[in-house]
Every structure is written in structure tokens, then in C-alpha cells.
Amino acid sequence: MKSPIYLDYAATTPIRPEVASVYMEAMQSVPGNPSSIHGHGRFARKKVDDARSVLAQSIHANQSEITFTSGGTEADNLAITGTAMSRKHLGKHIITTAIEHHAVLTTCEELEKSGFEVTYLPVDRNGRVTVQQVADALREDTILVSVMYGNNEVGTIQPIQQIGELLVDHQSWFHTDAVQAYGVLPINVKDLHVDLLSVSSHKLNGPKGVGFLYQKKGVELTPILHGGSQERKRRAGTENVPSIISFAEAVRLSSEELLEKAVRYTGFQTIMSDVFKQSDIHFEPTLEEGTPVLPHIFNVYFKGTDIESLLVNLDLDGVSVSSGSACTAGSLEPSHVLSAMFGEHSPRLRSSVRFSFGYGITDAEVQEAAERIAKVVKRTAKL
């Protein structure tokens, strides 16, 4: 039986052994509730605050600007709905893009049902929006602009800093979903001029079920959870202490390896491309050369293949990959990202695969996976 090879790190990453050790230790040694005033509670509070400091430093923010959440989805919801509810007296217009994660898109759709107006910016064939598009869409009643940092399906990086600079003198707040970019690219919230930024632990070898929202000082959001006064009354609920502590450890380890990872993941893309070329199969990288892209995501179009058959056959051959977002992959509906990029009737929607890389993969595994993929494509493609 062939050894399994995992190439779906954009969906989720395995927890690193060092992080798992920190998690287990915290489970056993930090039993207190951070809101309790006794010794056990104060010790838990210190551990949470120490982790908050590490996470704040990772994006050049202040500790008070970090609000812990259950992950990227909640962080996106808090940023968008929290802004809408707190600023609706200033306007009800929101700008986002057609290729956002569903955590952003479905939240915006829900707000539309409540009387908000949302402009969904189209993208070019590389999945990019321009600063001019944002400028043209801005109105006096625009209260929020939400543009993802790096796309989770194709890896396209958006001009976040330039959009942030555009919005400096406008009333709208600027949110970016940085779930895929965090831990892969250096992030400085001050340079980016963002007011809100969402991240998730499980995308960088931390535990699932924890993330945070960066909330710039002075940005007040209406809470979407009601209960206790945790997180400076921004997010009710007892903090997930072991996950928060180990999340910080995952970030610390990841931050030390940013440049190394970028070089290694780009090398993986080269290995796969070389194998595909040598195998005489028809493939095309989804993004054109020169497009700013996250190094760990490699989306490829295999002409003549059917995505459902391809994924099943690759799985049988021990290679775990995806057609796009894990949140909708079970349905295998055409990708809204590729639809926005190429049109609803493009064959790419049914023949494109996302390969994504992460901690622990070797050149040899990528080479082996590419060879298996090439054989499956050659066997199943109908040209």
C-alpha cells in the first residue's frame, strides 16, 4: 500500500509536536478560569496575557488590540457584523470582493437581509482587485471595506497596503481576512493601515478552535456574543486557555521560519511543474506568472479532467488534495473564486485542483505526489 501524502494544508494543518506538547502541559497545569481572582485564576490570566503579547507582536500590534475568538470564521463575523451594528448610524454600505471566504460572503449576505447594501467587487483573471475599483465604489455612506489578504483557493495576494492608504481619510473601516497569509507572510498592521484583521490558529500548525481579531485602538464593535465581560467585553465566553497558550507557541515557531518556508514552498511548486512537464500531461498554473501569490498555494488546471473523478482517484492513490475551500468541498459545487476569475462556464471550474504545502513535507514527498498525480491525470483526462 502506498504511503499517504497530505497536500491540503490550506484546509488545515497538523499540529506540530512542540505545540501539542505545550497544549497537553497547559491542559494539566493551567486549570483556572482567567476571570477568577484566586491564585489559579490569576495564573491562567497571566498565561493568556503572555500569549496575547506574543500574538500582538507577531503583527506589530498592541496587546490590548487582540481579541481571542473560536477561529477565523468568528473573527470575520465579529469584524463585519460588529462594524455594521456599531456604525449603521453613519451609513449602511459595505464593500467586499467576489472571491472572499464564505465566512465573509455569507455574513455580508445576511446583512443585506437587514437593509445593508453590499458592493461585491469583480476580479481579473488572476483574482485581483485594484485600488481604483475600491476608490470608484466608495461612497459617503460606506462604513466598511473587507478585502482578504491572500485567497484560500488560488493564493492571490491583494494590494492591502495600497487600499489601506486609500481609506486613511475615509470614514470606512478596513478589514482584511488574513487567515491564509498569517504565518506565511510578514504582517505589520500599521504599515497596512488596517483597522481589523482576522486570523486562525489551525492554519499554521496550531490547535483548531482558536483565532483572534486584531481591533485597532479606537475601533469599537458591537459584540455578537452576549454573556460575561471577557476580552474587554468584546467577546463573551471563558477563554480557551490551553489553545490560546499553544497558539502562541505555534506562532513563535512559524515566525522564525517565514523566509525559509517561502523558499521551500516555491521550490515545491517547481518540483511539481517539472514532473507534470516531463509526464506530457496538459496542465496550466491557474495564475499567470508575476501575480503576487501566497507561496504555499498552487492551483493547477488539468485540461480534460473532471474534478470529482480526479479527487477520488487521487485519494485512492494516497494523495490528499482539494478543489478549493474546505468549507464547501464536500458539495463539490463549482468554485465561486474560479467563477469570478474565468466565468461560470469555464472548463477550469471542473478541472482545477489546489495543492497546498506546509510544515513537515519533504522534496521527496512532493516529487512522489506529483508523479502519482501525473499518472492519474493521464489515466482519467478526456482530451
From TrEMBL:
This is cysteine desulfurase. Keywords: Iron, Iron-sulfur, Metal-binding, Pyridoxal phosphate, Transferase. PANTHER family: CYSTEINE DESULFURASE, CYSTEINE DESULFURYLASE FAMILY MEMBER. It holds the Pfam family Aminotran_5. Residues 5-367 form the Aminotransferase class V domain. It catalyses: (sulfur carrier)-H + L-cysteine = (sulfur carrier)-SH + L-alanine. Belongs to the class-V pyridoxal-phosphate-dependent aminotransferase family. NifS/IscS subfamily. It is an enzyme of class 2 (transferase).
